[in-house]
Amino acid sequence: MVDSYQPSSEHTLDRDCTTLSRHVLQQLQSFGSEAQDLSALMNRIALAGKLIARHLSRSGLVADTLGFTGETNVQGEAVKKMDVYANDVFISVFKQSGLVCRLASEEMDKPYYIPENCPIGRYTLLYDPIDGSSNVDINLNVGSIFAIRRQSGDDLDQSASDLLTNGQDQLAAGYILYGPTTVLVYSIGYGVHSFTLDPSLGEFILASENIRIPEHGPNYSVNEGNFWQWEESIRDFIRYVHRHEGYSSRYSGALVGDFHRILLQGGVFLYPGTVKKPDGKLRLLYETAPLAFLAEQAGGQASTGTERLLDVVPTELHQRTPVVIGSSEDVMLVESFIKERIREQATIGAT
Asked: For a Cys-Cys bond, which of 53, 90, 191, 193 suits 182, CB 3.0-4.6 Å?
């Protein structure tokens, strides 16, 4: 009779036992050196996420954790204390990895090199340590965005010029969302998968595999306070959604939270350029390219409005780019307004 016993919740238990590192190895169906490297790298990212989540949960209790440092970063933006803490966490965690030679962050002018790792560490981590840091002081969602690239060449002059390639060279990408629960979403080119941090275990446990963005969704996420700074084509799109039923405006000021909603429910997130700043605000290597990687893996699209985001080749480390990302039908709708205005301008120019 013992041989006939079958666990009543076998599938649930199996999923509940699937940790992040195990899942990476299952995705690659390999225990080879690169599979083990990626599994170890994802473990390091998870550790950074746990440390940041713990610090955020205590930020109102521990002195000197909220507010500004009084300094500005390389982009000229005011630096929050949580930005500095999170950036330091990623550096500290990857110093111990043995795998990463360089870390490049929007908080640092140049990449941070770990000389003791460089002889064998052939990977680079690109990351935004705290996206939406303006939300920290008012207890709203924030996140971390990351991408992993393989180092090409020895980078002896420490220019990191090999990073100036398009987003298709990303080995992995993802984000950590710090909210009511801490969620890690990642892809290594085999679909998009989410994990939830179980505080009782101290592990990220598989929550959902092979996430697919709906082809169309009701949400549009954009800072409409910039309405009169946009080009007319973007204003045309906003007028369209205002006049048609079925659309809901959802914008939190935190890219990770807004994108997570789009990933699960469908719709489109926009951060367009303006007449004065045609490249917009978001950074290609740290923000838009990693999320574009996820969007395409989940069956969605990501665009600058005129070009596929994963095809954009940066000319500098901190390059910015406009972004239109989310459900394929909604991204194409935004692009159609842009194309129409370009066509009209070409017609006027020809007369």
From this structure: 53
3 state SS for the chain: CHHHCCCCCHHHHHHHCCEHHHHHHHHHCCCCHHHHHHHHHHHHHHHHHHHHHHHHHCCCCCCCCCCEEEEECCCCCEEEHHHHHHHHHHHHHHHCCCCEEEEEECCCCCCEECCCCCCCCCEEEEEEEEECHHHHHHCCCEEEEEEEEECCCCCCCCCCHHHCCCHHHEEEEEEEEECCCEEEEEECCCCCEEEEEECCCCEEEEEECCCCCCCCCCEEECCHHHHHHCCHHHHHHHHHHHHCCCCEECCCCCHHHHHHHHHHHCEEEEECCCCCCCCCCCEHHHHHHHHHHHHHHCCCEEECCCCEHHHCCCCCCCCECCEEEECHHHHHHHHHHHHHHHHHHHHHHHC
